[in-house]
Target: Leucine-rich repeat-containing N-terminal plant-type domain-containing protein
Amino acid sequence: MFMAKSPMDTLHFSCIQIAIALLLFTQAKSTTEGSTSALHPNDAIPSCVAGEKSALLAFRAGLSDPANLLSSWKGDDCCRWKGVYCSNRTGHVVRLDLQGNGQALAGNISSSLLGLHHLRYLDLSHNRFDKVHIPEFIGSINNLRYLDLSGSLFVGSIPPQLGNLSNLRYLNLGYISDNTYSTDITWLSRLTSLEHLDMSGLNLSTLVHWLPSVNMLPTLKVLRVTNCLLKNSPDSLLLSNLTSLETLDLSENHLHKHSRPNWFWDLTSLKYLYISGNGFYGPFPDGIGNMTSIVEIDLSDNNLVGMIPSNMKNLCKLESLVSFRNNISGSIAELFHRLPNCSQNKLQDLFLSDNNLTGSLPTAPVESLSNLNQLYLSDNKLTGHVPVWIGELKQLTTLDLSSNNLDGVIHEGHLSRLDMLQELRLSDNSIAITVSPTWVPPFSLGIIELRSCQLGPKFPMWLRWQTHVMSLDISNTSINDIIPDWFWTAASSVMSLNIRNNQITGFLPSTMEFMRAKEMDFSSNQLGGPIPKLPITLTKLDLSRNNLVGPLPLDFGAPGLETLVLYNNMISGAIPSSLCRLRSLWLLDLSSNNLNGSITDCLVNKYSTNMTDLTLSIVNLSLRNNNLSGEFPSLLQKCPQLIFLDLGHNQFSGALPAWIGEKLSSLSFLRLRSNMFCGHIPDELTELVNLQYMDLGYNNISGSIPRSIINCTGMTQTRDNDDLRDAFTSGVYSAGNELVDYTENLTVLTKGQERLYTGEIIYMVNLDLSCNSLMGEIPEEISALVALKSLNLSWNNFNGKLPENIGALMQVESLDLSHNDLSGEIP
Ligand SMILES: *[C@@H]1O[C@H](CO)[C@@H](O)[C@H](O)[C@H]1NC(C)=O
Ligand SMILES: *[C@@H]1O[C@H](CO)[C@@H](O)[C@H](O)[C@H]1NC(C)=O
Ligand SMILES: *[C@@H]1O[C@H](CO)[C@@H](O)[C@H](O)[C@H]1NC(C)=O
Ligand SMILES: *[C@@H]1O[C@H](CO)[C@@H](O)[C@H](O)[C@H]1NC(C)=O
Ligand SMILES: *[C@@H]1O[C@H](CO)[C@@H](O)[C@H](O)[C@H]1NC(C)=O
Ligand SMILES: *[C@@H]1O[C@H](CO)[C@@H](O)[C@H](O)[C@H]1NC(C)=O
Ligand SMILES: *[C@@H]1O[C@H](CO)[C@@H](O)[C@H](O)[C@H]1NC(C)=O
Ligand SMILES: *[C@@H]1O[C@H](CO)[C@@H](O)[C@H](O)[C@H]1NC(C)=O
Ligand SMILES: *[C@@H]1O[C@H](CO)[C@@H](O)[C@H](O)[C@H]1NC(C)=O
Ligand SMILES: *[C@@H]1O[C@H](CO)[C@@H](O)[C@H](O)[C@H]1NC(C)=O
Ligand SMILES: *[C@@H]1O[C@H](CO)[C@@H](O)[C@H](O)[C@H]1NC(C)=O
Ligand SMILES: *[C@@H]1O[C@H](CO)[C@@H](O)[C@H](O)[C@H]1NC(C)=O
Model:
């Protein structure tokens, strides 16, 4: 069961897993190496056995080695070749370490390897043996103790011959490729010395009883079967052989069963247990309480409910409890009370974001948390104040309390001893952060998320000392102040910067181009002055709803810009041709400014050398409510992906060009309201099959409605609008929140009222031709536009009868035909 994940949570969670995986890997590797008497190839004594040298050369001959990894494989002493290790006692090759790292070997594995009779260790991981099967003869390398084929891109079935490797201690078949599978693993049961088994990513979907084969391996310490499409996991092992098992990773399978009983709760030797992403449901299992060796447990992304069991108090070795996205409920105080309380508190990581925890954080310090590094409690239902004892958790690197109902004040006392803190996340609470303007924090944060906390009215001075921040969100924090100059220096390395929705005044600095941000949201403030050259790294910028003046920059300076949102400012002048250099731009909203002049045609763009093949990526373009003039912009011929176009409330004039139908074939929303367009509605316009919204109201359009309007299936069929949604929302996710949170709005005149449509505009189907000089009969074809919700033909010169079938427009909520010369009966 996969829940909507907030990206940051996922990030942390996987980093931890990787770190653990690496740790375990190193451990496993060193113990296995210790058991061979391998020697560094530079040690003098042995020289190569002749037969083994020719076996190695034959092996190399089958390989393709584009990166020349085996260039050292020459000369007599094969014990000195890269990746070849000989026993310093016998001189035999005992180990081949041919792990590919970015650069990789490919080709065929020659059976000449069988000539290495003393080979104990074979690592072929992370090479590119794609399209090749794992050779069956590997099962005949009798002395093998260690075999690593992970990530080697072999395809097909795992050969059961591997079951002949009765000396094997370590077997890694993890994530070999997407097309590796096994339909029978009974051969495993013959590997009775096996200590480490990784089959992650192997397609084991056909296996029903997979566990009995594994249960034949009494020495097994590590078992990893994540992402194996396993569907079955028995309630118990009547007789368990797995008494040495320390690591079990069952995560991301399809077990979908009750949390108990389950065979693994009986494995009291377990130190690391990962069962996330399996659709386990039911109460938080009390079997955990018997796992007294447990160091780390991850139960995330299941549907566990209830409180953690009280017997967890005994888990004195527990370092990490990970349970993102479950439904743990009950009071946080009770949960803390049930955490291990031992002479030495080992607990380092407590990950409980996205659960159903309630109540206040306890007022007295919680002894079990005294060594905590990371505390994630976001997206629960916590209330009350943040207690001051949080400030005594001196090892704390991450404090995440966001999206709860916490209130009260956080002051220096909460923060002054958190020297190690790297991430402070308190967004979406009613917390006020009140510190003295002279306070110097002891920490240097990488992530600051304080959205909707109360930081103002003064600009928070302590941010001055936070010069290594990657992500800063102080949006909606009641700051009512001028932005200090130091801020731009302190924030110069921030990648995601959000100060939206405050009352911040001041100018954007001329040095802005030297910042390193990818995303900036300064919208809804009172920033003035012109827009300077932008950071070269910038992809998303929202400066809407400020007091910006002056012309747009002649050189935007951000070649990768994707969204540029500048509506509701006082930007003046013409739209510069430098816009044509923004080849990735897909959302441009310049509406409600003072722009004037006609829209540049990029053919005369001095910045680009060859404009004949120019195409822009623009999908959503809004220029409404400016003073733009000239003809319908011919630049739009270069915008084949345009879906939404709003030129309303300007002074555009001239006829609508016929090329709209051909060049803007994706167009769904066309709004030209309140301009001075004249001439006929070109027939070609009705080639826009997706057109569902056409507003030509308040222009000078003459002629009649083309009968081919029936070809606009956007108006004849109610479509599935999900594909449209992306065109209207910027969909930028940053730290789980939409940064540059853009929703297109339109006002539609229906039932005599201007009505504001926000996100739901995608469902609006509208034909508005009001206040023009159209004439003739209203064509019968109009009544085929049955998806219409609003039809306004008022204030024209239509005459004749109403279309017979107009009653077929069942979805219409607003129909206005007034002020025409229509006659006859209302059908
Ligand atoms: C082999 O080399 C290792 C490491 O240099 C050494 O510790 C070991 O004693 C040597 N074994 C023999 C048999 O020489
Ligand atoms: C691997 O074997 C196949 C089939 O025998 C052959 O076509 C291919 O050339 C071989 N590849 C190399 C690198 O020798
Ligand atoms: C190796 O295993 C296969 C299949 O499991 C078996 O048929 C074969 O006899 C074994 N070979 C040897 C040499 O043991
Ligand atoms: C896994 O294997 C089964 C049966 O061999 C196959 O039907 C299925 O498509 C495979 N799944 C994936 C994701 O490869
Ligand atoms: C435990 O392992 C031994 C050795 O592989 C095997 O003989 C025995 O059948 C196993 N017991 C169970 C219950 O599988
Ligand atoms: C925990 O172990 C005790 C003693 O072995 C046993 O009685 C109890 O049933 C176990 N609890 C669970 C939940 O497995
Ligand atoms: C928690 O429970 C609610 C209500 O039963 C359910 O809608 C939601 O999906 C559950 N969440 C998780 C993460 O299991
Ligand atoms: C934890 O242990 C200490 C010392 O044994 C004890 O004073 C305290 O009450 C315990 N806390 C909880 C929550 O059980
Ligand atoms: C969440 O907690 C509330 C209050 O404790 C409880 O009524 C509700 O059933 C819980 N929801 C789930 C899905 O556990
Ligand atoms: C511009 O590009 C077009 C199409 O790629 C090409 O035919 C033309 O020769 C180019 N013109 C110049 C001046 O490079
Ligand atoms: C609708 O489009 C088709 C195909 O482009 C065309 O043949 C037909 O004449 C059009 N219908 C009307 C009423 O113009
Ligand atoms: C759309 O309307 C909402 C609600 O009034 C407003 O917050 C938002 O800024 C508007 N978006 C645009 C692009 O005007």
About this structure: Residues 547-822 form a domain with the Leucine-rich repeat, LRR (right-handed beta-alpha superhelix) fold (CATH 3.80.10.10). Residues 1-39, 731-741 have pLDDT under 50 and may be disordered. Residues 7-35 form the longest helix (29 residues). Residues 523 and 543 are 5 Å apart (CA to CA).
